[in-house]
Amino acid sequence: MNNSMKLCISLDLPTAKENLDLVREIKDFDVWLKVGFRSFIRDGRKFLEDLKAINPNFKIFLDLKLYDIPNTMADAAEEIAKFGIVDMFNVHASAGVEAMSTVMHRIKDIPNKPLVLAVTALTSFDNEAFKAVYNEDITSKARQFAKDTHVSGIDGVVCSAFESLDIKNNTSLDFITLCPGIRPFGEDAGDQKRVADIPFSKENKVDFIVVGRPIYKASNPSEVVEKILSNI
Ligand code: C5P
Questions:
Q1: First vs last C-alpha separation in the chain
Q2: Pairwise CA distance, residues 21 & 184, whole Å
Q3: Three-class SS of 112-140
Q4: How confident is the model at residue 1 (pLDDT cuts 50, 70, 90)?
Q5: Fewest CB atoms within 10 A around its CB: which of 20, 176, 195, 230?
């Protein structure tokens, strides 16, 4: 990917109204919108339609991190793809190659099929907690997950900007990397442990930067979005 880095805004405000108000403020920008569990469980497909009604050019990333047996994951992926308004969704790489391949096979002929990303290692794990679950070091296992993801036909991974280049070097340069933990201009990290700014993300060939709080907590979100877009 990476002709130009894209901005994906996390819609992490507590209510649909607050998220929609934010989106109305930034309605003229060419951005992706990340919709997570909370909004989707509460507001469902209607919320996605409300976003597209504000500007049909918005791209939607449905961040549901599917994880189940292959057939059940493929059933869910098919339903998401058939919405026709989701541009990207994700699964867990630890569901395995068979599950990811089954997902990709199931959606391959659906018109306007979404991009599919996989989560390698959740960033809430430190090495010890990760080892307790996967019995391996986080760095080597995350790299293995990225390779599994790539051979399964998945389009890319959710990862840290610090891993983006290594993952591309171990898969392919056009394998998509989508990276949270971005503080575009070195803003407050909040609960993020390692944060990257825009120049670092560019150097590491990040395809999508995910930005939440630096935008929705700003007194003028559209000014921040404009500044980010002009820098990428
Ligand atoms: O507010 P902030 O910019 O830190 O938001 C980052 C977004 O990315 C949040 O929605 C968070 O849940 C998500 N995320 C993350 N780290 C990951 C995966 C997702 O911060 N590894």
A1: 14
A2: 22
A3: CCCEEEEECCCCCCCHHHHHHHHCCCHHH
A4: low
A5: 230
Does the global pTM surpass 0.85? yes
Ligand 1 pocket, mutate which of 210, 215, 217, 224 (most atoms under 8 A from CB)? 210
CA pair distance 25, 20, nearest whole angstrom: 9
List the residue whose alpha carbon is closest to atom 21 of ligand 1. 123
Domain map of the chain by residue range?
A: 6-231
What is the fold, at CATH topology level, of the domain defined by 6-231? Answer: TIM Barrel (3.20.20)
Task: Band the pLDDT of 194: cuts 50, 70, 90.
Answer: confident
Alpha helices in 13-135 (DSSP H): 16-25, 37-54, 70-83, 97-107, 127-134
Digit-coded pLDDT (tens) for 150-192: 999 999 999 999 999 999 999 999 999 999 999 999 999 888 8
